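This section describes the prediction task in plain terms. A model, or a person checking by hand, is given the sequence of a single protein chain and must write out its three-dimensional structure as a string of tokens. No templates, partner chains or ligands are provided. The sample shown here is typical of the held-out split.
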Amino acid sequence: MAKILESGEMYLENILVLREKQGQVRSIDIVNYTGYSKPSISRAIGVLRRDGMINVDSDGYITLTEEGEARAQKIYERHRVLTEFFEMIGVSHETASADACKVEHHISDETFEKMKEHARRAGQH
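The expected answer:
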């Protein structure tokens, strides 16, 4: 997978979440969802497009490429699992979700896999 910045991963995750919620995604949807400015979103979309993570059609609809989809799914899985793990140890949902956003981009694959295994085992009792 190509190296992309944390902010790029966040945008890919946002596109995935919005697609799941509403089917199609345009830049304005990302603006409304994130609260970021239109110029910031336009720059991010341009970078993600240049890096082969997304396609934008003539009507402005954004789709994830195969690589973009894989990256978005990976980050979104990390977000979900980390949020659940933090909640499992007693952290409030709001804090767990916010902390998951911070950790999901930096945690190693090894540590993440061990957390998933631990959460699975703990959930069986």
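For orientation: The mean pLDDT is 90.
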